[in-house]
UniProtKB/TrEMBL annotation:
Domain Glucose-6-phosphate dehydrogenase assembly protein OpcA C-terminal: 165-297
Name used for this protein in its record: Glucose-6-phosphate dehydrogenase
Listed InterPro entries: G6PDH_assembly_OpcA, OpcA_G6PD_C, OpcA_G6PD_N
Biased composition (Pro residues): 384-397
Bias-annotated ranges (Low complexity): 325-352
Residues of the Glucose-6-phosphate dehydrogenase assembly protein OpcA N-terminal domain: 50-161
Pfam families, per the entry: OpcA_G6PD_assem, OpcA_G6PD_C
Residues passing through the membrane, by range: none
Segments of skewed composition (Basic and acidic residues): 363-377
Region annotation Disordered: where it falls in the sequence: 325-397
Organism: Parafrankia colletiae
């Protein structure tokens, strides 16, 4: 393992190459690059989940820890290892401070495994718009976790509004077992037995229950109601009318659930609660668009044709420092207006990072006298042209 303090992106690339040479037989083909975005408070949990997922899918693991964005001094600390505490694969943990945290892609892009898909996972609450984060714009798949949001259901609705094919959420992955058991129960349902209204029983504000209801509505074309079960954790069961009777799938304990149908004996089947690493590993099994998730999200949110949206996203530059200044003081609002070139400091859509903003050097912004000019440029400022030189009067004819 190599630890680099107050380093640059170029040094991290060289350290990873040196670790690969030193690993010898441990170096292997990579199926993908997994980029994990997390804050300092939850690094340990994110590392444990990512390590479990990387053990099932050989990948280059890049953990981006954004901290102290308002720090006046950009800084990059990195830990590079192969076959170390983060599993048998290649892993780089990067702690970014100051303005560098807003340009994390300048360090991450040179570290991506060549010719391999990129998956970005936000351990904490996802961004309001994924286009605000370039780490999500260049990814082939994007995994969010609405459970980490203050209001998970509102965060799930925002994910529907911001949806692009390739997006998914771990709230959807949590109900894979429920969907499998319920689909298997329909193997004994005759085609003549039409399904009726359904009810999902769950803890209040559970995004997985919302997606479960959307999936049932999309698959069976029946009305679905979500009922709260205060004091309980997770989904507790689902009931739906089938023919002249009722079909119910209800949890019996943390590891199993029972299937009951009118006129048939109850069957108890395994339905274990899975850890975060297992959920992430399941999402890494597929690198194509999850059309079924898009249909379930569309049915629940009543936003049509999510799966038909274009895949392309353009990076929208967003500077939290300018937004905070505009929100806290009139002087800050005026400064943000001057920096953005229009009132309100609204982010400029379609802004793209200039190649080599920090290049391979993650701390390239440090000490540059033009940093404020670069920030203004990314925020949409129009550079002020220098005063025109005086024009000499024409010569007398």
């Amino acid at each position: 393992m190599t630890t680099l303090w107050d380093t640059t992106g170029s040094a991290v690339v060289k350290a990873l190459a040196a670790e690969r040479r030193a690993a010898g037989a441990l170096a292997f083909g990579l199926a993908l690059t997994l980029v994990v975005v997390v804050d300092e408070q939850h690094v340990s949990q994110a590392e444990s989940a990512a390590t479990a997922a990387a053990a099932a899918h050989p990948c280059r693991l890049l953990i981006v820890v954004r901290r102290q964005i308002d720090s006046p001094h950009p800084r990059l600390d990195a830990e590079v290892s192969i076959g170390g505490r983060l599993g048998p694969g290649e892993a780089v943990v990067m702690r970014m401070s100051g303005r560098l945290a807003l340009h994390a892609e300048s360090v991450v892009l040179p570290l991506l495994a060549p010719d391999a898909p990129v998956v970005t996972w936000w351990y904490d609450a996802p961004p309001e718009k994924i286009a605000y984060d370039p780490l999500g714009v260049f990814a082939d798949r994007r995994v969010t976790g609405t459970y980490a949001a203050t209001d998970p259901v509102a965060a799930l609705r925002q994910r529907a509004e911001d949806f692009v094919p390739g997006d998914t959420d771990l709230a959807w992955t949590r109900i894979s077992g429920w969907r499998t058991l319920l689909a298997a129960a329909f193997d004994q349902v005759q085609a003549s037995e039409a399904a009726g209204p359904a009810t999902v029983v769950s803890e209040p504000g559970n995004p997985s229950a919302c997606l479960f209801a959307g999936w049932l509505q999309a698959r069976l074309q029946v009305p679905v109601t979500v009922t709260d079960a205060p004091g309980r954790k997770g989904i507790q069961g689902v009931r739906l009318a089938v023919g002249d009777g009722e079909l119910e799938l209800a949890r019996t304990d943390s590891r199993s659930a029972g299937i009951t149908r009118t006129g048939f004996p109850t069957r108890v089947l395994p339905l274990p609660e899975r850890g975060l690493g297992d959920l992430l590993a399941e999402e890494l099994r597929r690198l194509d668009d999850d059309v079924v998730y898009a249909e379930a999200l569309s049915a629940w949110s009543h936003i049509p044709d999510l799966s038909r949206r274009p895949r392309h996203r353009e990076h929208i530059w967003r500077d939290p420092a300018l937004e905070h200044a505009a929100a806290t003081s009139p002087a800050g609002a005026a400064g943000a207006t001057r920096a953005s070139g229009r009132p309100g400091a609204a982010p400029r859509s379609g802004a793209t990072e200039r190649p080599g903003t920090a290049g391979n050097d993650g701390a390239a912004d440090r000490g540059k006298p033009t940093e404020h000019a670069e920030v203004a440029e990314h925020a949409g400022a129009t550079p002020t042209a220098p005063p025109a030189a005086p024009t000499a009067p024409p010569a007398a004819s």
